[in-house]
Amino acid sequence: MNRVDHAAIKASDSDVRRPDGGPTADPRIKVKTRGVSVFYGDKQALFGVDLDIDEKSVTALIGPSGCGKSTYLRCINRMNDTIEGCRIEGSIEIDGEDIHDRSIDPVLLRARVGMVFQKPNPFPKSIFDNVAYGARIHGLASSRKELEEIVQSSLEKAGLWGEVKDRLGQPGTSLSGGQQQRLVIARAIAVRPDVILMDEPCSALDPIATAKIEELIDELRFNYCIVIVTHSMAQAARVSQKTAFFHLGKLVETGPTELIFTNPRESRTQDYITGRFG
Amino acid sequence: MLEQIAHSRLVLIALSALVVWAATLFLLGRRRAVVLAASSISGGRQMHSRPNYHGYFAALLAAGPAFLALAFYALFGQALADRIAISDLPADFSALSAFERAVQIDAARALAEGGGSGVIASEQPPAVGTLATAMERSRGGAKLIAVAVAIALAVLGAAIALMRIKPALRARTMVERVIGGLLMLCSGVAIATTAGIVLSLVFETIRFFGEVSPLEFMFGLKWSAQTQIRPDQIGSSGAFGAVPLLFGSLMITLIAMLVAAPVGLFAAIYLSEYAGPRFRATVKPILEVLAGVPTVVYGFFALLTVAPAIKAFGEWLNRVLMNLFPGVEGPIIDAQPTSALAAGLVMGVMIIPFVSSLSDDVINAAPQSLRDGSAALGATRAETIRKVILPAALPGIVAALLLAVSRAIGETMIVVMAAGQRAQITANPFSDVTTITVQIVDLLTGDTEFDSPKTLSAFALGFGLFLLTLLFNVIAQQVVKAYREKYE
Questions:
Q1: Could you report the per-residue pLDDT of B253-300, keeping only the tens digit for each?
Q2: Which of B67, B120, B297, B457 is the most buried (most CB within 10 A)?
Q3: A187, B276: Cβ pair inside 8 Å?
Q4: E strand or H helix at A150, and its extent?
Q5: Where are the domains of chain B?
Q6: Residue B388 is nearest to which of A107, A110, A123, comparing CB atoms?
Q7: In CATH terms, is domain A6-273 a member of 3.40.50.300?
Q8: A8 touches B at CB < 8 Å
């Protein structure tokens, strides 16, 4: 699976530009979306997005506010279902399975596709219970010992174990903003997802906490497919392998991050990343 | 001419005159400010406030003090005048007993007000007539003084206001200060009223405890509020143990909460987490209509519909149990035509909207981010509510329940009609019990003398009820405070 060479990324990238797509036999593609449009009531927020998201890598979604990147993100774990009057068209496949298929339970889908929000949202519970929450719901641990192992390994993967191992009983809300965000990431990891969606995970954090989260994302990409929405071009450049630029509800351009930032094909992308609008 | 105008009509005329006066001064003050502003532009001096504020300033200064003087007269003028007339009473009065004096003074007052209340001058002793004349004279004087003072204040205020209107006058700040004062006054009225009620309760309660031991009141198990009319009367010595009443109140409250807490809470959860917007928009107001039903309507619903049904059910249950345990003598369940259960159930229905409305607010206050976070981990709605939203909202829900409890303890009409009169401590909900509120109503209605322990005990009960509900409200507020700190 580790044959992610540059040429291959470019190849899959050119696939995206061909709307016909073809079968997702390609094991490097985790999430495949074709013609995804989203409507909030009468208002259309997304216009026919075709995008392939690679397995075990970080894909950054960039674009000005209101461009639909968060809406697209929320399609992948069907969080848009919880919004009244929201309608989705087109197909979204994870591992070749249509997530809108009748056989897919959206609740279980969300266990496979974790999500981290803009503002850290730990539950008003202890640090331990926060991380154990998903594991308990899905019955991932058969004993207290197993549960403790899951909590510890999740916190370790989120780089928080060292800081909280002596105070697991304290409320999650007592942590600092950056620690809360890593706690929330640990909480998502504990459910053993394949995909982790991050919706501007650092926009509420200071630069030091941001650096820690970025470091964490860089480590997590070896095991997870990560999709991150960000307003920071620098962050997209630092953490992602692939970047997709959204504008006015449309996917304008997608490709390897280095290419998008050094040699974009579209002039709108060029304008946005050089700060001429957005 | 002034003497012929009745007290209330005089006050009305004076008030209307003041309104006109205030409007005039508003226009005058505003005009003066406009003129000043026009000339000040050339003089290079900016007006501090806009002309309207100068107008308000003049109106307030002209009408405010005069209004206060009139208000003082309207509230206390006549009483004060009577007091002066009484203070130099004719000599005949000093020989009378306190009681007769009071009767005669009342009669004189009625005469001074021009009769009409069934007091006829020729039937009264001559002293009363003398006093009535003195009162009339004194009242006329008070009227004159009041009108004179009000006019003087109005003119003086207007003059001062018009003189003070200058570019540098901070009319805007002054008006602001007056408005602040008015608002403070209004909140003061609410607080003063509460304090007055509590004080009156406290004094009467102290009087009651002068005749009945507080220990008996608080711990006595027998309530029979009677006092001897003759010293040698048998069988009517009163007992003032409030425990059975408290027991009755708490039992009915418990039954009511057993109905209202689950129904109200689950309704709130359904409405805030499950129901669609259209359904919620329809059902929530309907649910809140329950809170608008007059309690007396609930009362006769309890008495005429629920209580008979409960009695029939109790009797059926009794027959079943008697058949099951044939050895037992007498009724196992003693079902009465009025019962704790009937009153409690109906009161529970009445309280449902309190619980549901308050809980709904609390549940909605839980941040959406928590719901999203839980949903994103693959939790269902019910799991999210049970494991995240309810624990987070629990303090608020507890507070809502406590407020509902104090509402239930203080509720009167339903229990008066459907709970019964018998003060007893029983575990049988089919039996009739009486509550603190029922006894207060009972003690204070009909012919009562206001110095017997029987009547005074009502104040002691009222004071106890006040302390009880105060306790619940304070706890509820503390819980809500702790809850607020958690989110902010």
A1: 999 999 999 999 999 999 888 888 888 888 888 888 888 899 899 998
A2: B457
A3: no
A4: helix A144-157
A5: 2-169, 223-487
A6: A123
A7: yes
A8: no
